[in-house]
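S1.2 Input.
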Amino acid sequence: MASVAYPEFVRRIDALLPQTQCRRCGYDACLPYAEAIAAGDAINRCPPGGDAVIGSLASLTGRAIVPLDHTHGEHAPLAVARVDEAWCIGCTLCIDACPVDAIVGAAKRMHSVLPALCTGCELCLPPCPVDCIDMVPAGRAWSSADAFAARERFEKRNAREADARRASRKAPAPSHAPVESPSRPSKAEAVAAALARARARRAIARDRTR
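S1.3 Output.
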């Protein structure tokens, strides 16, 4: 292990992780967890990888195989997100939360999850204001090809967001304060209004079933 350069060692650890970017390990993504493992952190904090990943990490790092740390979650078959399109309000919060660009849609338009791209990270669930996203069995196993593709999409998304931040910082300051139209609601106000409409639809649907 001492003969392996540290960045290369991190790369090899990262290559063994499932690249779901789910954060259940306690880190923001798979690569930070790989860096932590290289620095001595536990190898058993990846529920999506389960025993198979723990075994691979033990072999690479020379450490003992240990059981999955269940405080970070349970290993389970792959599940993917599915949007209940009847209740989607088009708020884009799930799109913002998805680390691998597996959700498509636009503001005030119905969103859809691309099952072949979804890593099952569940990061889209908490921000959904109408709870219209469910996790359903994928009916297949997560493969090394899936992991490779997910990491590529994650890196491209990060690069795109970094470019947007740089462009925003370089943008010249306006010569005068922009005047916002009072008739144009903020995103928070738009989401609140859409949420109210969704609740009203749910109430009507409940009344019709009584």
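S1.4 Remarks. The first helix runs from residue 6 to 16.
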